[in-house]
UniProtKB/TrEMBL annotation:
It comes from Natrinema gari JCM 14663. InterPro entries: Alkaline_phosphatase_core_sf (IPR017850), Phosphodiest/P_Trfase (IPR002591). Coiled coil: none annotated. GO terms for molecular function: hydrolase activity. Gene3D superfamilies: Alkaline Phosphatase, subunit A. This is Type I phosphodiesterase/nucleotide pyrophosphatase.
Length: 542
């Protein structure tokens, strides 16, 4: 491992704040909660960082660390689709070169900790401990490094707070998880002495999904991030620091639109009961309410009828689970509710028999069941464009119950994506109005209703740059997440991949561009780990 005895300085530290944004940070700055982060913003230059469509973690971080849109790197969502089945994405689904591998090709070493969609780790000059979508005890680089990290962290390291000893979703669990990120990163930088470091904090996002608007929890998460950042800067003494986020976060005050229910009314979606409308592998994690050793078999009866009644009035299992969790009843009830009960009691999209549907709410789009592409395609290829235009027109006209438009845009996928993997995108992209409305893929409830999550992603994140390599007088305006990888290349005077979609931030002089050889990623492998599925379900993504 190059650099293990080298005392060279850390030239650039990138700090990733998942869902970091000015509206959240400003109140914490004003109260003096974040002296380290506030100091970086005040000392350097800062501005908004526009995310992509869709502005969700699993697709946005690969866009940030490759500098390329999903049409080039191939990841649109937490899920990857194969016909009517799906799988959770991992690093093998990312079909573009991460910036640390590009740096490695130019003799520069890196330490990367907790960045999403980086498992399984590929070889490069440095070390990588993956983040979200990785299983616990993941494959890291180099082999065996995780055990050393655990020893350096007091014998423990986990990716998800739920895997630690603190209570599920507790503030203490969040704080310890964040502390482990900092400890791991500092240990690896001491061991490797890298040129480049990338340290990501996920709890700045998950606290909003798991503890909606809980001011005490949000403040605790950000305070611990600030403490770990202070300790990291003190220990590693980076020459330059770049703070980035993948998207923003805020309240959703508009309506939730159940797109599949809307499509069913217009004849596009067929439904079925009994669980057969869901992919096989999803059935084990569909709802945490149903976990437990005794939750395996059931007999149709009162329970199923009760669940059916609940579903008919909008009491989805996630809402029920959330309510039970708040009053401390989720775990005992979960061990008594059989897994098959909710699937038998609720309606699901019958994907093979439908002509168009939403498969995943976080990919923000409608898929057409195209003959010749899907196993049981219903729409002939010669009718594809006609059907797509009809759907675009129909969805563009949707108004919420108060008469405002539901979407800012409804466009064919080519409007947002370009590259060799555009065909893997949803056929139609739907952009909620200012992300103050939301879409959902469930059936069996009214077409409009209260959002499942009162806090959710916004498109505008944040970026801040501090250090002698940056022109701190330059204004950061119009920056996008595609600009971060070219900025990193320019700081290290490494030629920018001409296929990148961004340009360096105006705080640094642009280095030369050149084409690079085709990226040769590993074969795509399945994410066969129930922990990952459960955690994504906890966060409301699945």
């Amino acid at each position: 491992m190059a650099g293990s005895t080298d005392n060279k300085d850390l030239r650039l530290l990138v700090v990733g704040l998942d869902a970091g944004c000015r509206p959240v940070l400003e109140s914490l700055f004003e109260s003096g909660e974040l002296p380290t982060l506030e100091g970086l913003f005040d000392r350097g230059t800062a501005g908004p960082l526009e995310s992509q469509i869709p502005p969700w973690t699993a697709s946005a971080w690969p866009s940030l660390y490759t500098g390329k849109n999903p049409g080039k790197h191939g990841v649109y969502d937490f899920l990857s689709f194969d016909g009517y089945e799906w799988d959770v994405v991992n690093a093998t689904h990312v079909r573009a070169r991460p910036v640390w591998e590009l740096l490695s090709d130019h003799g520069l070493s890196s330490v990367v900790v907790n960045v999403p969609v980086t498992h399984p780790a590929r070889a490069f000059d440095g070390a990588l401990i993956p983040g979200l979508t990785a299983p616990e005890n993941p494959d890291c680089h180099p082999d065996g490094i995780l055990e050393d990290v655990k020893l350096a962290c007091g014998g423990e390291y986990w990716i998800y707070p739920q895997s630690g000893p603190a209570p599920d979703r507790s503030i203490e669990g969040y704080e310890r998880t964040i502390e482990l990120r900092g400890n791991a990163f500092r240990y690896l930088t001491r061991r490797i002495a890298p040129d480049f470091g990338f340290l990501q904090f996920q709890q700045t996002d998950s606290v909003f999904h798991e503890r909606h608007g809980d001011k005490r929890a949000i403040e605790a998460v950000y305070r611990e991030v600030d403490r770990q950042l202070a300790a990291t800067i003190e220990r590693t003494d980076p020459e330059n620091v770049l703070v980035v986020s993948d998207h923003g976060m805020g309240k959703v005050t508009g309506d939730e639109f159940r797109v599949n229910e809307f499509l069913r009314e217009r004849g596009y979606v067929s439904a079925r009961r009994g669980g057969d409308g869901m992919p096989d592998w999803s059935k084990s994690w569909e709802n945490d309410l149903l976990e437990g050793a005794e939750a395996g078999e059931h007999t149709t009866g009162l329970l199923e009828r009760a669940m059916n009644l609940a579903a008919s009035v909008g009491l989805t299992t996630q809402r029920v689970a959330s309510a039970l969790d708040r009053v401390g009843l989720k775990e005992p009830i979960g061990k008594r509710v059989p897994n098959d009960a909710i699937r038998a009691a609720s309606e699901q999209v019958d994907f093979p028999e439908s002509s168009a549907y939403v498969r995943s709410k976080s990919e923000l789009g409608v898929r057409i069941n195209l003959a010749g592409r899907e196993p049981n395609g219903q729409v002939p290829p010669e009718e594809y464009e006609v059907v797509r235009e009809e759907l675009i027109e129909t969805l563009s006209a949707v108004r919420t119950p108060d008469g405002t438009r539901m979407f800012d845009a409804v466009e064919p996928r080519e409007h947002y994506f370009d590259g060799p993997h555009v065909d893997e995108a949803p056929d139609i992209v739907t952009v909620p109005r200012a992300f103050d409305t939301a879409i959902d893929a469930t059936l069996g409830t009214a077409q409009f209703g209260e959002p499942m999550e009162p806090w959710n992603h916004k498109r505008t994140g944040v970026v801040a740059a501090a250090g002698p390599a940056f022109d701190e007088s330059a204004a950061l305006e119009g920056a996008t997440i595609f600009d971060i990888a070219p900025t990193i290349c320019s700081l290290f005077d490494v030629p920018i991949d001409a296929a990148m979609d961004g340009t360096p931030l105006p705080v640094i002089d642009k280095t030369a561009e050149r084409p690079y050889p085709a990226y040769d990623p590993e074969p795509i492998t399945a994410t066969d780990d129930e922990t990952v599925e459960n955690r994504l379900s906890d966060l409301g993504y699945l």
